[in-house]
Known about the structure:
Layout: H1 9-14, H2 21-35, H3 45-49, E1 58-62, E2 67-70, H4 73-87, E3 88-95, E4 100-104, E5 107-120, E6 125-139, E7 142-152
Parallel strand pairs: 1-7
Antiparallel strand pairs: 1-2, 3-5, 4-5, 5-6, 6-7
Organism: Hyphomonas jannaschiana VP2
Protein name: SnoaL-like domain-containing protein
Region (Disordered): 1-20
Amino acid sequence: MVPPHLSSPLSVMTNREPTSPETEVKTRIFAWCSAWSSIGGKLPTDKLREIVTDGPIRMVTDFGGHMTVNVSLDSYSAFWSSLVSETFSEWSLLIDSPIDVAISGNMATAGFHARLQGVTHENTRKSQHQHSRQVFEYAHGVWRLVQEQTTIAPEETCF
């Protein structure tokens, strides 16, 4: 048997093995964390936009001493872009634990630990551990992020 010719995007897509909903959600989480990594010292909002829902989102960050709540990607991106770019010249968000996923109908929840790390403008390295819980909704054939709650221990925050 001759293997299929793979230079065509159509042949790659039509020969793709089906994946489980859990795997699809985990793939979206890896994409979210990857999209959080800076490009030229900026938070790439356009890459984040590809992952979130088109409607309202709920994004909560608990710093221990205070919390921020955002209900749109634009306000979330504005808050975080300012915070990370004032602190870091370059940064990345890495998954630091297994990802626990639970699926119920068209909704999924996922929990994981992550590490935000980067190089400051003073050329020192900083990192913080955080726990994230994300909620995804399956709509139009794609899992979209609709809610995130991130908790950062006050003694570990970089900000």
